């Protein structure tokens, strides 16, 4: 599964872990996260994330 990294703070969204605090279930692909989701560390918008290489 593709991980995504926040270009502001470096937080890595791992689809296998999800984001339980934001009620994003494990196994949720980044593309399937609601558009109003924000980085749990710095509150950057979803569009500030890029695919991790």
From TrEMBL:
Chain ranges of the Rubredoxin-like domain: 1-52
GO biological process: alkane catabolic process
UniProtKB keywords: Electron transport, Iron, Metal-binding, Transport
Signal peptide: none
Keyword Metal-binding: yes
GO molecular function: electron transfer activity; iron ion binding
Required co-factors: Fe(3+)
Residues involved in Fe cation binding: 6, 9, 39, 42
CDD domains: rubredoxin
Cofactor stoichiometry and binding remark: Binds 1 Fe(3+) ion per subunit.
InterPro entries for the chain: Rubredoxin, Rubredoxin-like_dom, Rubredoxin_dom, Rubredoxin_ET, Rubredoxin_Fe_BS
Family to which the UniProt record says this protein belongs: Belongs to the rubredoxin family.
Protein name in UniProt: Rubredoxin
């Amino acid at each position: 599964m593709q991980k995504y990294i926040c270009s502001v703070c470096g937080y890595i969204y791992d689809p296998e872990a999800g984001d339980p605090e934001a009620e994003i279930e494990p196994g949720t692909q980044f593309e399937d996260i609601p558009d109003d989701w924000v980085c749990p560390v710095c509150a950057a918008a979803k569009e500030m994330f890029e695919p991790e290489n």
